[in-house]
Design goal:
4 strands; alpha+beta; 151 residues; Alpha-Beta Plaits; 2 domains
């Protein structure tokens, strides 16, 4: 609504920031109109805060009954290397054992039929232990790859 449109409120001023002639008649500047709008906003009250505090939420067991499994647990491993020959993988495993890290070799068959040897450090139950092992590997210039496996 623009200036010149009259408010239909019986008091002669609507009290809203609608731009009608009655609402803007006593306000000469934009700053005064903003102040009026801010005063009206401060008068607003919200009740949903109290309603939420007292509300109860019913949770059904349908989701568990529907076959949705509860949260899965994971273990973490660090792959320190991958080698074609067992001898190379064993050398790295011994080096990791000397660093006081639990290391193992896992044979993996690729799609082409080749068998490679992965050198794995772990398993770890939480990320803080992973970070400590990864730091120790990095200090000894051994790159690692984080693997997450479902238990």
């Amino acid at each position: 609504m623009g200036v010149g449109v009259f408010c239909r409120q019986p008091t002669g001023r609507c009290g809203h920031v609608c731009g009608c002639a009655d609402a803007t008649a006593g306000q000469g500047t934009a700053a005064a109109r903003r102040t009026s709008a801010n005063n009206k906003l401060s008068d607003l009250t919200f009740t949903f805060y109290n309603e939420l505090k007292n509300a109860e939420i019913a949770v059904s067991d349908e989701r568990l009954d529907a076959g949705v499994s509860p949260q899965k647990s994971y273990s973490y491993l660090l792959q320190a290397g991958s080698f074609k020959y067992v001898k190379d993988a064993e050398n790295l495993r011994v080096q990791l054992l000397l660093l006081n890290l639990d290391a193992a070799i896992e044979a993996v068959t690729l799609g082409s039929g080749e068998v490679w040897q992965r050198v794995l450090v772990g398993p770890f139950s939480d990320m803080s232990k992973v970070a400590a092992a990864r730091t120790k590997l990095a200090q000894n210039r051994i790159d690692s790859l984080l693997l997450k496996r479902e238990i």
